[in-house]
Specification:
The complex is a heterodimer of chains A (about 130) and B (about 70). Chain A is mainly α. Chain A contains 4 helices and no strands. The N and C termini of chain A lie far apart (about 60 Å). Chain B is elongated and about 55 Å long. The chains are: A mainly alpha (about 130), B mainly alpha (about 70). At the A-B interface, helix 1, helix 2 and helix 3 of A face helix 1 and helix 2 of B. Chain B: InterPro entries: Spore_III_AC, Spore_III_AC/AD.
Chain lengths: ~130, ~70
Amino acid sequence: MEIMQLVGLGLVAAVLAVTIRHNKPELAMLLSVATGIMIFLAVLGKIGAVIDVLKELSERASLNMVYLGTLLKIVGIAYIADFGAQICRDAGEGAIGAKIEFAAKILVLVLAVPIVAAVLQSLLKLVP
Amino acid sequence: MGYDVNLIFKIIGIGILVGVAHYVLKSSGKEDYALIATLGGLGIVLIWVVQLLGTFFDQVRSVFKLF
């Protein structure tokens, strides 16, 4: 049961962070960053397995691989940006976190533009 | 599971050590040394965390095929 290990890791890190937050808040923030990274790294491999299955399915459905790649990039950007924004918000810098989310939204929009263009192109084909 | 839980205890150890050093140096009147001790501890922990963050970003990049 991997979830037990991860919950235990999180609880231990939370207790230690509360202990240290009183006189060294910057180290408590770095501790929470390290804990978050460890929990994320532990489950990232499983996401990779799911993504492989998705890729195989899309190949079987003879989808264009460009679309799945764009989708995966968007999901990755969202994960990383959410991670950074939450850490900034935890450290009391909500404004920087909001800017990170803003940047992520723009990057996702840039990635999504080719797909929107393709949709519009196929719509134009349908119109006589 | 490919992670090093010892890093958390190392960070906490540095934190407690730096806190005690800060307290002792401050109570003996050496405020500037107290600041240097705090900055040193913060630098060490920051180097560890940034290295971990680098491996994390590499993993995410390879899983999601980001550039």
